[in-house]
Design goal:
This protein has 3 helices and 3 strands, in the order ααβαββ. It has helices at residues 20-31, 37-45, 64-74, and strands at 50-54, 78-84, 87-92. It is of the alpha+beta class and 96 residues long. Helix 1 (20-31) crosses helix 2. It has a 3-stranded antiparallel sheet with strand order 1-3-2, with helices on one face. A hairpin with a 2-residue loop joins strand 2 and strand 3 (87-92).
């Protein structure tokens, strides 16, 4: 949900998750194929080792998702684990 900006509710009390917007903002560069320190900090703090990039037409136009995948891999922080369009599974390189 943080990547797609969908409203997410806390499973315990069905209230909005106030941290979601901050997390989405920190991870937003990943959606454009760029890696920055804030995004890496979120991934490492949550021990997230894998990222899936999905070619969704309402998010990426005309093959832009491939550029996102290529950009993340080119950063040296991710490696391509599975390339199965319209999905790409990336794994974080280095310590969690």
């Amino acid at each position: 949900a943080s990547q797609t900006r969908r409203r997410t509710l806390n499973a315990y009390n069905q209230s909005p998750a106030p941290w979601l917007e901050a997390r989405a903002a920190a991870l937003d560069p990943l959606n454009r194929g760029r890696v920055d320190d804030a995004a890496l900090a979120v991934l490492r703090a949550t021990r997230t080792r894998q990222v899936v990039v999905i070619d969704e037409p309402h998010i990426y136009c005309c093959g832009e998702w491939r550029g996102v995948v290529d950009g993340l891999v080119a950063s040296g922080h991710f490696r391509l684990a599975v390339d199965d369009p319209p999905f790409a599974l990336l794994e974080l390189v280095g310590p969690a």
